[in-house]
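Weekly modeling sync, notes
Attendees: S.R. (lead), two postdocs, one rotation student

Agenda item 3: backlog of single-chain predictions. S.R. asked that every request posted to the team notebook include the full sequence so nobody has to chase files. The rotation student volunteered to paste the first one in as an example of the format we agreed on. Action items at the bottom.

Example entry:
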Amino acid sequence: MADPTKTDADKYKVIFENERVRVLEYRDEPGQATSPHDHPDSVMYTLSSFDRRLIAGDGDARDVSLDEGDVRWLDAQTHSGENTGQTPTHVLFVELKEPRPSQAGSNGGTLGPS
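Predicted structure, as returned to the notebook:
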């Protein structure tokens, strides 16, 4: 598993962790991109509005635009991303450490937030 705090340590920071969850803060600037990394099932809370392109491990891409204050579910996935907008990105991720029983070990969810 490619941990985003290792692949993109300049953008992801652990702000809380215990045996059940890990909370990450993410920040970037327009034009910046991330290396491929993994996320378990997570809840995402946007602290700023932003536009970005997400690219799955298989090359499938999806453009997303999110507003400040949006809360979204993020299925477990591997992706990279690029800030394609004109504003910085600021997001909190609450990563679940326990996989869903029906999808343990699966990476077949939706790319990006839903």
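Discussion: group reviewed the output briefly. Residues 44 and 93 are 5 Å apart (CA to CA).
Action items: rotation student to repeat for the remaining queue; S.R. to check formatting next week.
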